[in-house]
Amino acid sequence: MRFTASTMLLSAVALMLAASAALADPATVAPVPADPLIGKWRVDLTASPAEGKSGRYYTEMEITSVDGNRIVGTFYGSPMEKGRINRSWGSVRFAFITHDGGGGAYNHSGEFVDGRLIRGLSHAVDRDFLSVWTAQPGTIEKSAY
Q1: What does the alpha-carbon distance between residue 27 and residue 49 come to, in Å, rounded to a whole number?
Q2: How far apart are CA 45 and CA 108, in angstroms?
């Protein structure tokens, strides 16, 4: 293939257009509502999938309010502290802090998925572990699904 000044110019323009498209601001995503989070949630804290059904470990989370970028409720019987919500990326994500009876801090975060499931993480700072959990509407005794 023979490169002329015009083919090189066209190639340079094409590369500049591709680069500017890649650097463009992401499309504006409308914030999604967080109100569906309000209510009781059955949280599955099972340590690993290898534990099977017999090793299931549940607790409850109750979200009593979502107001602007704030979330209020309880997790594992402890009040949520400094709860915040982010609804800017087409999904509801949230984070909050709880404490155990001995004063240990737990940082929690979650994402509301498909309108009926929360996928979350809990980091026990003083106990040196990270727990993966899921939650569905319902209580320990009865799942809503």
Answers
A1: 37
A2: 12
Q: Which helix (H) or strand (E) holds 21?
A: helix 5-23
Alpha-helical (H) ranges within the chain are: 5-23
Pairing mode of beta strands 129-137, 39-44:
antiparallel
Q: Are 119 and 112 in contact (CB under 8 A)?
A: no
Q: Are 126 and 107 in contact (CB under 8 A)?
A: no
Instruction: Name the DSSP letter for residue 49.
Output: G
Q: How many CB atoms lie within 10 A of CB 87?
A: 19
Q: Convert the pLDDT of each residue in 41-61 to its tens digit.
A: 999 999 888 877 777 889 999
Domains and CATH numbers, the chain: 35-137 (2.40.128.120)
Give the predicted TM-score (pTM) of the model.
Answer: 0.76
pLDDT tens-place string over residues 89-123? 899 999 999 998 887 999 999 999 988 899 999 99
